[in-house]
Amino acid sequence: MANRSNRPSALNAPSAAAPSPEVDISGTGASSKVTARLPSGESVEVLLYGATVISWKSDGGKVENLWVSDAAKLDGTKAVRGGIPVVFPVFGPPPKDHATSALPQHGFARTSRWEFLGKSSSEDALDASSVKLDFGLYSSNLSDEAKKAWPYDFGLVYSVTLSKEGLQTVVNVRNEGTKVFEFQLLLHTYLRVKDISKTTVTGLAGVPYVDKVLDATTHTQSSPTLSITGEVDRVYASIPQDTTTVLEDGKPRFDVVRDNVDDTVVWNPWKEKAAALSDFEPKDGFQQLLCVEVGSVQGWQKLEAGDGFEGGQLIKSLL
Ligand SMILES: O=P(O)(O)OC[C@H]1O[C@H](O)[C@H](O)[C@@H](O)[C@@H]1O
């Protein structure tokens, strides 16, 4: 006779479990990475070195949206050429006579090992469509060299949220010391495009920019559309509209939506610069990438002791 008491009652029976996002940690040392995958197939990979997003696949996992060089170092020996390196606390070569002046180009965040702080995703069926990964970098984790070059107590929490809608990457900066500090912040996103000659950018009309290729002075973009026909390295500042759109063949491909940061750099190294970068492969890879880098790089963000700042982006793949 069947023992009825061993049977799960209707009340305790597991309901058809909603599939939830999977999160794995793989690799060792500087090559450790965190991978998250939604039940619908979208995925993101984040290297702990630099908390660098090195892959973001949308559309059920079928479309890779980020460009990463075939020669990129993924072993912690050099900032990753591609993906989304985090630039902090200085953008570009540091100015002389500033607290960041002893730091390397783009600061130390992209070359430091971050901690994985964990994931949050609701087990709720309604929310199985997103997963948030948090990464931390604190002054106590820095190399002695970086600590000496920038002797402030800070905490960075970088949140990478993957959803069907897109990829959100937001940095929270806290001044955990007693001294005021100034910083710049930028998310150096290498977007993968099909063909740079058919790629255009909108959302920057009427915005002043520093043209680092031409003459390092300020110009204003008069045309509504920017076409990329050669090396481009422009720092657009104080952009009134939140969204910059990348189009392929005139059709929107990515929306890059700024969140509490006002500036955007548009960069493509083109043939000669790509040839000169040892970690840039294939050499004609510049035809498949466009960097659209949101941040706060015009002037400095100032943080009083105990204060915080948060800024970042949402990138939507529009295929
Ligand atoms: O070679 P990296 O240090 O990674 O910098 C790559 C590029 O970053 C930004 O886009 C700057 O505006 C460029 O001037 C610089 O060349």
Can I get a quick summary?
This protein has helices spanning 144-149, 270-276, and strands at 22-26, 33-37, 43-47, 52-58, 63-64, 86-87, 115-120, 130-138, 154-163, 167-175, 181-187, 190-192, 199-202, 208-211, 218-220, 225-227, 232-236, 243-248, 251-259, 263-268, 289-303, 308-317.
What would you note in describing this structure?
The chain is about 5% helix and about 40% strand. With about 325 residues, the protein is mostly beta strands. The chain has one domain: Beta-galactosidase, Chain A, domain 5 (Distorted Sandwich), CATH 2.70.98.10. The strands form three sheets. It has a nine-stranded antiparallel β-sheet, with no helix packed on it. Strands 6, 11, 12, 14, 15, 17, 20 and 21 form an eight-stranded antiparallel β-sheet that branches. The longest helix is centred in the C-terminal third of the chain and has 7 residues, at about 270-275. The structure holds 6-O-phosphono-alpha-D-glucopyranose. 6-O-phosphono-alpha-D-glucopyranose (G6P) binds near residues 233, 267 and 291. 6-O-phosphono-alpha-D-glucopyranose binds next to strand 20 and strand 21.
